[in-house]
Design a protein that fits this description.
It holds the Pfam family adh_short. The protein is an alpha/beta fold and about 250 residues long. About 45% of the residues lie in helices and about 15% in strands. It is built from eight helices and seven strands. The structure holds NADP nicotinamide-adenine-dinucleotide phosphate. The site of NADP nicotinamide-adenine-dinucleotide phosphate has 29 residues, from helix 1 and helix 6.
Length: about 250
C-alpha cells in the first residue's frame, strides 16, 4: 500500500454503506480521497471523524445521474489534487418493483446510476491518468452477485440487468486497456447481501420489509467489501484481480 500514500482516490456513493467504508480504509491508508454523493453532509461528518488519519477525505456534492455534476466533480479534483489515480464506482440503487410493475422513470434512474455513471467516471478517470502519465491506476466497479446470476427475488430483476451490463462493461474496458498496452488495471467486486442502507432505500415505502430482510440471514458488513478493495489495490503490478465474488456464509444463491 506504500505506493498509494498521498495519491488520489475517487469513491462514488460515499455517503453511506460500502462507499463510506471504502473511503475510511483508503484515508487510513494515507490516500487523499474524494467522496462523492448527493448527501454531502454525511461525507463531511465522516471526514471530520477521520481528522487524525494519515490521508484526507474531501466531500463533493454530485448527483451521478447528472452528467454536468460528474464533469464538475472531475474539474474540482483536477483543480485541488491534479487528477484521479483510483476510481471506485460504487454508487448503486434498486427499486422494489418487478419487471411487470416497474416504471420507465425507475428503469432510467437505475440505468443512469448503475451503468452510465460508472462509464463516465471510468472514462474521465482514465483520461486523467493518461494525461498525467499514470500507468498504475485502478478502476474498481462495485458490482453484485446479481451481475452473475438471476435470482428468484423478482424485485431485483431490472437491477440484475444493470449489474449484468456492468459485468460486460468491466471486462470490455479491461480488454480496451490491454489493447492500449496500458497497465491501468480494471477490477470489480461482486458482493452478496451487505448490511447497508441499500434495502432500506429500496423498500422506502415499506420499512418492515427491509427490516425483515436484514433479520432473515447473516449479512456481510461494508468493511468486508472495503477490505476487498484494499486487497485489489495492494496486489503486485503483474496481478490484476478481475472479480471478487463474496457472499455471506449463510447466503444460498
Ligand atoms: N447492500 C447490498 O446487499 C449490496 C449487494 C451487492 C452489491 N451492492 C452494491 O454496492 C454498491 C453500494 O451500495 P450500498 O449497499 O452501500 O448501498 P447504500 O448504503 O444504499 O448506499 C448507496 C450509495 O449510493 C449513492 N447514490 C445513490 N444514488 C445516487 C445518485 N443519483 N448520485 C450520487 N450518489 C448516489 C448514495 O448516496 P446519496 O443518496 O447521498 O446520493 C449512497 O452513498 C451499489 O452499487 C450496490 O448495487 C450492494
Amino acid at each position: 500500500m506504500e505506493r498509494w500514500k498521498g495519491r488520489v482516490a475517487l469513491v462514488t456513493g460515499a455517503s453511506a454503506g460500502i462507499g463510506a467504508a471504502v473511503c475510511k480504509v483508503l484515508v487510513e491508508a494515507g490516500m487523499n480521497v474524494v467522496g462523492a454523493a448527493r448527501g454531502v453532509e454525511k461525507i463531511e461528518i465522516l471526514a471530520n471523524s477521520l481528522h487524525d488519519a494519515k490521508g484526507t477525505l474531501t466531500a463533493v456534492k454530485c448527483d451521478v445521474t447528472k452528467e454536468e455534476d460528474i464533469y464538475n466533480l472531475f474539474r474540482e479534483i483536477k483543480g485541488k489534487f491534479g487528477g484521479v489515480d483510483i476510481c471506485v464506482n460504487n454508487a448503486g440503487i434498486s427499486y422494489d418493483k418487478t419487471l411487470l410493475d416497474g416504471s420507465v422513470a425507475e428503469w432510467r434512474n437505475m440505468t443512469d446510476v448503475n451503468i452510465i455513471a460508472p462509464c463516465i467516471c471510468s472514462k474521465l478517470s482514465i483520461e486523467s491518468m493518461r494525461e498525467r502519465g499514470i500507468d498504475d491506476g485502478h478502476i474498481i466497479n462495485v458490482n453484485s452477485t446479481s451481475g452473475h446470476r438471476v435470482s428468484g427475488f423478482a424485485e431485483v430483476h431490472f437491477y440484475a440487468g444493470t449489474k449484468y451490463a456492468l459485468t460486460a462493461i468491466t471486462e470490455g474496458l479491461r480488454q480496451e486497456m490491454r489493447e492500449l498496452k496500458s497497465h491501468i488495471r480494471i477490477s470489480k467486486i461482486s458482493p452478496g447481501f451487505v448490511e447497508t442502507e441499500f434495502f432500506t432505500r429500496m423498500f422506502s415505502s415499506n420499512e418492515e420489509k427491509a427490516q425483515e430482510i436484514y433479520k432473515s440471514r447473516m449479512f456481510l458488513q461494508p468493511e468486508d467489501i472495503a477490505n476487498s478493495v484494499l486487497h485489489i489495490i495492494s496486489s503486485p503490478p503483474h496481478v490484476e484481480i478481475n472479480d471478487i465474488l463474496v457472499r455471506p456464509t449463510e447466503q444460498a444463491s
